[in-house]
Batch of 2 targets.
Target 1
Amino acid sequence: MKRTLLALALTAALPFAAQASELSYNYIEGGYSRVSGSPKVDGWGLKGSVALGSNFHAFGGYTQYDVSRSNIDIDYWNLGVGYNHSLGQNADLVARVAYQRAKVSGFSSLDGWFTEVGVRGMLTPNFEGYIFAGYENGDDIDSEFYGRVGAQYKFTPNFGLVADVKFVDGDQEYFIGPRISF
């Protein structure tokens, strides 16, 4: 009886174990965001992605920053598309392009675009990592190259904790928060 229950439990858990190691392009994440430097610039963000077939995805995000010791708020959002190509069972080559806009209270909006390419992969069944190199430009945004690195630890196949750091022009942008994959 105990062996039968154990065998049934293991059989039921196999699909979840397999899903935990797959890369998902369907997710929503939210959390704390901060830009390094002085004065303190921090806030909250909400990001997401939706798979468009097996090799394409749409993504976007919104972040609301507060600048300390001032009445300045920054509303930043982006919207784009990406292409993902399998490099093996646990890794993808990812290329993305997006429109971005920042509205600084009391000032005009800053419009631009970015593109990035990188690798995203499962390092263990519950730990994903990624690294990107990117370029951003626009009418109101200086052209800059940047690097971005991040990771996600999956507590379950559908719930994890993600952390991301973007290195641009001597500054860093940090993000940490929960991710729900579907």
Target 2
Amino acid sequence: MTENLPPCPECSSAYTYEMGALLVCPECGHEWPPATAESADNPEDGAIRDAVGNVLADGDTVTVVKSLKVKGHPTGIKAGTKVRNIRLVEGVAGHDIDCRIDGFGAMQLKSSVVKKT
């Protein structure tokens, strides 16, 4: 029962499969939300979306979906960390969320690593 899943955007492997809300490539290990493939074909109103496709807005509360390394800090941001009162910005290198995280201070995150709560 193979569904019509898009190939991996990293290595172009045709063996992608679904794992929860993400698509996974077994060859290179890349994970991505299925909405990424759809939004590349369908540029909508320019809305910023989280890892599972929910539209984000200023003041939302989000949860980090994967552990992140932070330069200059001995421990990173753990998956499941809540970030309150985000602000959407035109960031550098895809970092489109401006926020303050307890214990880390002000920083920018990519919308692809958070989920709206």
